[in-house]
Write a structure and sequence with these properties.
Elements: H1 4-23, H2 35-42, H3 67-82, H4 99-102, H5 141-158, H6 166-175, E1 183-189, E2 192-198, E3 208-215, E4 218-225
Antiparallel strand pairs: 1-2, 2-3, 3-4
Helix pairs in contact: 3-5
Length: about 240
């Protein structure tokens, strides 16, 4: 994936959930150490066994309050339906507003880590001068299967209802848990709204993009591949006939 910030966020939440699970059972209702905790204190030489994060099926996280977790859970489920075991199940995550309640004050980060010094021999970045519209690229079988699943899911969601304009199309796609920043407006087609959904950072090949177009009876939806090299804008990629 090309967005480690999402994975880092999930890893952090999983770690915090693990901390909360490990802390459970150390005191009774009176605030005194439980019998189990006292026994551990007596056997001071025994090292506590950390509790691993609880893993749950990804489809159970598709109702999580964080939209990034929901879309990642959706993509994980669809990918594993196309190729079982391709992506691991996700850890059980607390909601963002619950994180502060699962970590004690002494465990809360107080300052940002110092940035690592950069090497002095970094090469110049490649030129960002436009090189003309890029063409679509081929997709592997897993991404083709996933693209079909996403497209069918979108078509069924509209259920024959035509979006009146782009705002309505975008609103419906967002309600389907596609991230707003991943939805890009395209010129209308035959007077009907059109959008492309960038799923490149969540596909097996980092190339998957969906195109959704309004029709008189719902929408059409299909998929295609967009290269990740260079500064390619998915709205400028020319589709194959």
């Amino acid at each position: 994936m090309r967005t480690p910030n999402r994975l880092a966020k999930i890893a952090l939440a999983a770690a915090l959930g693990s901390m909360a699970l490990t802390a459970c059972g150390t005191a009774d209702a009176t605030g005194k150490p439980s019998a189990k905790a006292s026994a551990v204190a007596v056997g001071a030489s025994a090292k506590p066994t950390p509790t691993p994060p609880r893993m749950i099926p990804s489809d159970a996280l598709e109702t999580h309050p964080d939209p990034e977790v929901r879309i990642l859970a959706l993509v994980t489920r669809i990918t594993n339906e196309c190729a079982p075991g391709t992506m691991p199940e996700l850890p059980a995550l607390p909601a963002d507003d619950d994180i502060s309640r699962t970590v004690g004050p002494e465990e809360q980060p107080t300052t940002d880590p110092e940035p690592l010094p950069l090497p002095t021999d970094i090469p110049e970045p490649p030129s960002s001068e436009p090189t003309g519209p890029a063409g679509e690229v081929s997709l592997g079988p897993v991404d083709k299967c996933g693209g079909d699943a996403h497209a069918e899911r979108i078509r069924k969601a509209f259920d024959g209802e035509s979006p009146a304009d782009y705002a309505e199309l975008r609103r419906k796609l967002t309600a389907l848990d596609y991230l707003p920043e991943s939805i890009h407006r395209m010129p209308d087609h035959g007077g009907k709204p059109r959008a492309r959904i960038d799923l490149r950072d969540m596909s097996m090949s980092d190339n998957l993009v969906l195109e959704v177009t309004g029709t008189a009876r719902g929408v059409t939806a299909d998929y295609f591949g967009v290269p990740v090299s260079g500064d390619v804008k998915i709205t400028e990629v020319k589709r194959k006939p």
